[in-house]
Amino acid sequence: MKLYLLLFFYLIGNVCFAQTSVDSASYNPLKEVIVTGVSKPIQAQNALSTVKIINRKLIDAQGANTLNDILRNQLNMQVQNDGLLGSSLSMQGFSSDKVKILLDGIAVNGRENGSIDLSQIDLQNVLRIEIVQGPMSVVYGTDAVGGIINIITKKSKHEQIGITTQYETIGKYNLHLNYGQSKQHFNWSISAGRNFFSGSNYIDTGSVKRQMLFKPKEQYVASIFVQQKLKNSTLQLSSDILKETLYNKGPLAAWNAFRVYAIDEKYYTTRVNNRLQWQGTWKQLYNWNWQLGMAYYQRIRNRYTLDFTDLSEQLTSGSGDQDTSRFIDYTSRGMFSGMYHTLNYTLGVDLNAQFGNSLKLANRTSNVQDYAVFAQGSKVFYQDKLKLQAGLRATYNTQYAVPLIPEINLLYNPCKTIQIRTSYSKGFRAPSLKERYLSFVDQNHFIIGNEQLRPENSTHLQFSISHVAFQKNSTLLHVLFTQYYNHVLNAINLALSNPGVSISQYSYYNLKELKNTISSLEIDMRYKNCSAKLGVNMEYNFQSVSSLSSFTAFEQTLSLGYQLPKPAIQFNCFVKHTGSRPYMQLGAVDGTLSYSGYQPNFTFVDISTEHSFALSKQAAAKHLKLSVGVKNLLNVQSLFIPGVVAVGPHNGTSSLNFLGRSLFITLQYQL
Hints:
By secondary structure, the chain is mostly beta strands. It has a single domain, classed as TonB-dependent receptor, beta-barrel domain (Maltoporin, Chain A). Helices cover 5% and strands 59% of the residues. The chain contains 5 helices and 43 strands. The protein has a 22-stranded antiparallel beta barrel. It has a 5-stranded mixed beta sheet with strand order 3-8-9-6-7. It has a 4-stranded mixed beta sheet with strand order 27-28-32-31. Strand 15 (217-229) and strand 16 (233-248) form a beta hairpin. The radius of gyration is 25 Å and the shape is globular. The two termini are 36 Å apart.
């Protein structure tokens, strides 16, 4: 404990306000380049949507190794943890099934209980993350009601060799290697790594403690990137692979003179995400961007008896003890943009097919296809100060009738320092294969799908104003205010199908509606080597005809730091306070769910320091970077939710749980 306190006071004594280091004297967040939802890269200030960018410097400053590490400190986002299903995300008050996660523009598949496990998305090969809060259903279709998280991977442009190793006192040991080469028109890179977590938070089940709240896991990751530059275009091939083994140790089932054994489980997960992208320019007037993707997800569960006398393992034969789930998604998306007189236009096609095979599906196998075309047109008015864009998506789904999905966006620049954006859009989400056909019944679960589910339809309004109040040399004051309004009909939720019965049975049902409005204020301040970013978020949920009462919830974030130019040392402090909010109790099945109990407020504090230096004075110098910090300084581990019998069918507790305080050390070597 003394070590943590010494490190804390050492950092705070040198801290001024900052989110990232000051890279240049004329830094402006609006100059960042984005690629999400556009046919060619554009600056954020010219985008019709407000895009938040998490760059590589911020990822390193927080010691983030997987996606859940970096998102838990973001405004208007909450990360939840489940012992078996990993980390899930809610954004804008919507659950993770309404948030689409992309890898270089191609959707990541493999949802368990509607969520992508964020802890399975490694960040070592990630350049930056682009976040759009609000629907982008015209371009990306279903599951994009709550927003888009687009993970942009690194594209090596020069020869390099790198090693990154990280240790956390909570029991994490990570090692990553990368190598890349570049020639005149061709470059490639490869990276590989291992992430190991020994588990945390033993559950008291008697004299012998084996069960852990956070299960031990081991991950092997690899990434391959190849790029060929052609005359007027670029061809890129990327592949990311993950192999994970999660160990779920059970309590001793018998301990006597005749036998000592326990019933354990192992979960084997394989993720493969392949992307092929071809983008270019024709006659310097037209741009195209074509993507082809294949996402493969497999999860194997084995339950077995571990005999402690000889450490032998034997698979059990109970109903549902062994299972293999396999899902393959194919995506083809093409966008072509150009100009006709004074009208800028984009034409697109989006083809998606998902095939599932699992013992947990009622018919064992199932599939769904989604074929869509979309168009966007924009025009500039009023001496180039006003830009109006309208879009429309038409879709054919093999299982549901999909309405036309429109959007209208407006960008107004009354002067060089002010930008005003407003948008209206519709959203649509078809029930997933699991929500319709799931049949998951064993000794610990009873979850049945619902083939009568109706798709979700939603309406969204958004208004934002961005003002660079002051900028001169290294001094900057940037203010961003955003107002959201979301109205979702037939929202799909998992609920108890037999309340009051001893064996809890769950199924998916349509809520009548969910409606909220969110006010968000962010202030970015920089002065010489100091900077600050303050965020305040207020979410108001309206009382709905589903008998859900209204409530208000608050969030605040603060990023602090200071950079010493010589030696190159960066100090950081990240704070996020999440206010109390009612918890939705999984209750009756007729669309009358209620809030039961309150999730208490809590605060996360992370601190870190980074030291970068060159080991050689040559042009191709060897660089070494050392990062040391503390995650969850206040040691927030368990939040009891009074009045709630169980948070869900998987963890069976009335609390939210987080990893405790840990010291991390990261060493990066780059040649």
